[in-house]
């Protein structure tokens, strides 16, 4: 994650600390997501599992919200401050793709109570994992845009719950 952005991050100052904190939240979300992989013997209505899913969904919504209502805005401001139109264009394209993953994550959270069996929940979690992988890739591109190393060929995301 963001291995090639050291020069940009060195100049970010306070934004760098917030990005680091946000990346720690990302890691916590990912670790918690992976911990859900051993759910097969449980039932969807099992109380400990239900509590664990609620906690996961809260982490998911918090992480998505932190991006949209904090980090992305600050990153765009940083790009604007250096007057890099190419990076701003790239950031705009990436943010449009990230928005699709946000909608998917929020739909997953909103529909968590609709899963009546473990198989449908596992299928949804698998699709969510793919969505998160795409989101993390796009977020990395957004951050890398500050360093002028954004990949110009952003593929549109096609996700459905």
> Could you tell me how far the N terminus lies from the C terminus, measured between alpha carbons in angstroms?
26 Å
For the secondary structure, the number of strands is 0
Structural class: mainly alpha
Going by CATH, the homologous superfamily would be Regulator of RNA polymerase sigma(70) subunit, domain 4
User: How does the major sheet shape up?
Assistant: none
Question: How much beta, percentage-wise?
Answer: under 5%
Q: What's the CATH class, please?
A: Mainly Alpha
The third-level CATH topology is Four Helix Bundle (Hemerythrin (Met), subunit A)
Query: What is the global morphology?
Result: elongated
How many helices does DSSP assign? 5
Question: SSE order, as H and E?
Answer: HHHHH
Radius of gyration: 17 Å
Average pLDDT level: 78
Instruction: Determine the fraction of residues in helical runs and give it as a percent range.
Output: over 70%
Question: How would you portray this structure in words?
Answer:
- The chain has a single domain (13-145), classed as Four Helix Bundle (Hemerythrin (Met), subunit A).
- With 161 residues, the chain is mainly α.
- It is 72% helix and 0% strand.
- The chain has helices at 6-10, 14-35, 47-81, 85-110, 118-145.
- The protein is elongated.
- The two termini are 26 Å apart.
Can you give me a brief rundown of this structure?
With 161 residues, the chain is mostly helical. The protein has helices at residues 6-10, 14-35, 47-81, 85-110, 118-145. The protein has one domain (13-145): Regulator of RNA polymerase sigma(70) subunit, domain 4 (Four Helix Bundle (Hemerythrin (Met), subunit A), Up-down Bundle), CATH 1.20.120.1370.
